[in-house]
Design goal:
527 residues; alpha+beta; six-stranded mixed β-sheet; six-stranded antiparallel β-sheet; 49% helix
């Protein structure tokens, strides 16, 4: 891949300072981007089984808006649609910031806003990291909101231990004692518990509670789970196109990854995501599959067999589609598998964003992680469809828990201390401004040898003499060394404390509600 253009793959980094944000492109370019993307999408030259992209786009948007609002929408393409998305987790405020940007951009473009809840992702650990122990010696503990289990998709993950769920805010409050008063979780969690009591899965309950809070705070976007998108007819047509051209998609997907890895000098084959593989004539598809009876998420595979398209998880499940080339028939068979046999086919991350950007959103707002990996999606789509999806936006912010603590020190200070300690060992004379008389002889001896050219004949003697002089001068710099060692220990502890207290990764529910609402409003207004 020597010809890969490294400039085609951009680097994104989260802002480090409290209250700082990243919105890319800048706000003055976002409104024009909405209209530019609308015009671009209207002219994309592709059809899915004979249905032009623009027609499938209208159907997909209508289906999404119905899932998000419950209303039948007849003007799906007439108003801008701004979207973002994330897993239904207790994420940090930098992720939540996307929803505030989503709301603002939709208002300013007179459009609609939908947050796509990625309930096809795995619920890996039902716990969050919480700082505890006070501001002078803090540590981080994991506080669970449910019992642990085999990771399942959020769509399938119910609550296993109601007592753990219900006691969560009390245990968070105890951990935060002395650091944060009245964390947001106190008001949020009764809504989570109520949603679980109504039969919602764990992730959906968290999402429902968060969205209710957003509405209380004046945001006006709607939400829809990716599961409902994947269960709708437009997605089935999109999926059939990929499954019927899976050889082409394989090549596009894996070539895009190879180019990305080359550009970023990544040698790990699983980064940023694994290649799609072949197994005994089966091609791995960019979809997940599971059933209600076997809810563990697993890769979907496909192969052509005597004109049929056969799907499988290679673990015993095999689902033929007799006339897949006829998209009406193939889509009907996928619907039958879903609603009569409980076979759930869900998009993987790369295909999720390609579908969302190509057939749903006028502008999709990613976080930094999604923006990085969507560079792979852009290239894969370009190789497969002949064009990339309309450009996306990227947004994140850094908000730190409002905990008073010792003044910040420079991250460079440990390196500076280590450099000075090394200099005391190997160049002690440079740290003696007025050397005492009993040090002068050692300094002079070292200077003479340093100024003497090194030769094979004198190398050993010269090295020994310089080392001896350095050793003899150590008592004269010992007071400074002792000061530096004390500072080094203190600096290490201060940096550890700072890292704990100033992390941007803490869940939004740990923050004081009024403080966080005002911070998010300010950062969004200033973006």
């Amino acid at each position: 891949m020597a010809g890969v253009d490294r400039s085609a793959f951009r680097q994104f980094r989260a802002p480090r300072g409290q209250g700082q944000s990243l919105v890319d492109p800048g706000w003055d370019e976002l409104l024009p981007l909405v209209e530019a993307n609308r015009q671009l999408a209207a002219g994309l030259p592709y059809d899915f089984g004979g249905t032009p992209l623009v027609e499938l786009r209208a159907a997909a948007r209508s289906s999404l808006l119905h899932a998000a609002t419950g209303a039948t929408v007849t003007d799906a393409l007439e108003r801008p649609l701004i979207m973002s998305g994330h897993q239904p987790e207790l994420f940090h405020p930098g992720v939540w910031f996307k929803n505030f940007v989503l709301d603002r951009l939709a208002r300013e473009s007179a459009g609609r806003a939908v947050n796509l809840v990625i309930d096809s992702d795995l619920c890996r650990a039902p716990s969050i990291s919480v700082p505890t122990g006070g501001a002078t010696s803090p540590r981080v503990d994991a506080v669970a909101f449910d019992a642990a289990s085999t990771p399942l998709p959020f769509e399938q993950r119910g609550v296993l231990d109601r007592s753990v769920l219900e006691s969560f805010p009390d245990r968070v409050g105890e951990a935060l004692a002395g650091l944060i008063d009245q964390p947001l979780v106190t008001g949020l969690w009764p809504r989570v518990v109520a949603a679980v009591a109504e039969g919602q899965p764990l992730g959906a309950a968290i999402g429902v509670a968060r969205h209710a809070l957003e509405l209380d705070w004046g945001l006006a976007h709607s939400e829809a789970p990716i599961s409902s998108v994947c269960d709708a007819s437009p997605f089935r047509w999109f999926a059939l196109d990929i499954l019927l051209r899976l050889d082409d998609f394989h090549r596009a997907h894996n070539q895009a990854l190879a180019e990305y890895r080359t550009a970023h000098k990544i040698r790990t084959p699983a980064q940023p995501i694994p290649d799609l593989h072949q197994r005994d004539g089966w091609l791995e598809a960019p979809f997940w599959v599971w059933t209600d009876d076997q809810p563990e998420r697993r890769p979907l595979f496909a192969r052509r067999d005597s004109g049929r398209l056969v799907l499988s998880d290679l673990l015993g499940g095999e689902w033929p589609i007799a006339d897949a080339a006829n998209f009406d028939s193939g889509a009907a068979r996928l619907a039958e598998l879903r609603f009569q046999h409980g076979v759930k086919i869900r998009s993987r991350a790369l295909v999720t964003t390609v579908f969302a950007r190509l057939l749903l959103a006028d502008v999709f707002i990613h976080g930094i992680g999604g923006a990085k990996y969507d560079q792979v999606a852009d290239r894969a789509a370009e190789l497969y469809f002949g064009f990339a999806p309309p450009p996306h936006a990227t947004a994140t912010a850094t908000l730190q828990l409002p905990i008073p603590h010792a003044p910040r020190i420079s991250r460079d200070r440990p390196r500076e201390i280590a450099a000075e300690l090394r200099a005391l060992q190997y160049h002690p004379e440079r740290h003696l401004e007025s050397p005492p008389s009993n040090a002068a002889a050692h300094i002079d001896a070292k200077r003479r040898w340093v100024q003497t050219d090194k030769t094979p004949a004198n190398a050993a003697e010269r090295h020994h003499a310089i080392e001896s002089a350095n050793a003899a001068l150590q008592p004269f710099v010992e007071p400074r060394r002792a000061e530096l060692l004390v500072e080094q220990e203190r600096t290490t502890e201060l940096l550890r404390t700072t890292a704990v207290l100033e992390s941007r990764e803490y869940a939004f529910c740990l923050f004081p509600a009024d403080w966080l609402r005002e911070q998010l409003r300010q950062v969004t207004a200033q973006a």
